[in-house]
Specification:
Shape: elongated
Strand order of the largest sheet: 1-2
């Protein structure tokens, strides 16, 4: 997952934070990095999946694929 300089600010109960005008608040720096990492960890520990039986089996479909073996050509 690509990380950006800013990310949505999350509350302690993992919900979006909104400004008084209703805009999604953003954060950056160390907090943005920590939130992005925590989100990815939660995904891998099955905390953030919804209806897993109907979703994409990322571990089995994508990550379980063997890398292609490439033989380098001699110059």
């Amino acid at each position: 997952m690509p990380h950006t300089a800013k990310t949505a600010l999350l509350s302690p109960d993992w919900d979006l934070q909104l400004s008084p005008e209703g805009n999604v608040l953003l954060t950056s720096g160390a907090l943005a990095i920590a939130q992005n990492l925590a989100n990815e960890i939660r995904l891998w520990t099955n905390d953030a999946y919804y209806q897993q039986e109907n979703g994409i089996a990322w571990k089995e479909v994508q990550l379980a694929k063997k890398l292609p073996f490439l033989i380098p050509k001699q110059a």
